[in-house]
Amino acid sequence: MWRGQAQFEDTRQHLQKQPVVGQWKPLAPSNRGQELQQPEPSAKDSAGGDENQSVAQLNVSRLRSSSVEIREKGSEFLKEELHRAQKELKLKDEECERLSKVREQLEQELEELTASLFEEAHKMVREANTKQAASEKQLREARGKIDMLQAEVTALKTLVITSTPSSPNRELHPQLQSPSKAVFRKGHGRNKSTSSAGAATAASQGLPVEPVSSEFKEVDSILLAEFQAWKESPTLDKSSSFLERIYQEDVGPCLDFTKHELSELIQAAVEQNTLTIEPVATQALPVVKVSAIECGGPK
């Protein structure tokens, strides 16, 4: 490009240095409308002008050819630059696409990792809650058993204290009871605390202890709670849930006679401590026949 401009400048300066073709004559006034006189070119001047014109045309053709060459080279250069830029752009697009895929893959892996971490955390929390609930349940059961054992120990201590040589407690000394009462006691012994107390007493006296059945191993938490509530404020009021249960499960079945009036009288006498029990005479008593109506039997 710079080469063509230099040639164009040289040609322009060369044309400026060429001499002027022909001569002009001065204008002079005439008497009768003299006409202007123009110079007449000579043959030599005509030949020089043709030569100069051919040189100028040659220079112009050279300039045109150089400008065309410059344009072609410029267009080729621009095409090469455009092609190179397109290649670079294509490479950058491929790189961007690859990086986008890598980013999507990383995001997916991160999402899966986060989900697995949350799932593992939830699983650990769930297992911890389950273990905690099981531990709390075992703790409550253990405390219930401890409270039951403490209540049995307290009852046993009370029975031991109330037993004296002059008036031995028949609960602690079953051998002092009559055979009939012992059989009745054995058949009616359903209370867990008294059964445990009797077993402990028998063990302390060196007597053979009967194996405890499976029903004695289970602790009734509701009954224990009612007993503890009654123990805090002992009362003989039947409105207490513990005493109500005792009357329904223990006292009621023992006094469930056919004649309800007799049952009520015996229960009232026991509550008022006015019931007297006399031993059976060794001699045969006269048999008194009582009608079935008085005993509450069928008419």
From TrEMBL:
GO biological process per UniProt: exocytosis; protein transport
Coiled coil located at which positions? 75-159
Naturally occurring in which organism (per UniProt): Podarcis lilfordi
Q: Which InterPro entries match?
A: RAB3IL/RAB3IP/Sec2, Sec2_N
Domain of life where this protein originates: Eukaryota
This chain's protein is named Sec2p domain-containing protein
Residues of the region (Disordered) are 1-60, 164-207
Q: Where is the composition biased (Polar residues)?
A: 31-40, 51-60, 164-180
Domain GDP/GTP exchange factor Sec2 N-terminal per the UniProt entry, residue ranges = 73-157
Which keywords accompany this UniProt record?
A: Coiled coil, Guanine-nucleotide releasing factor, Phosphoprotein, Protein transport, Transport
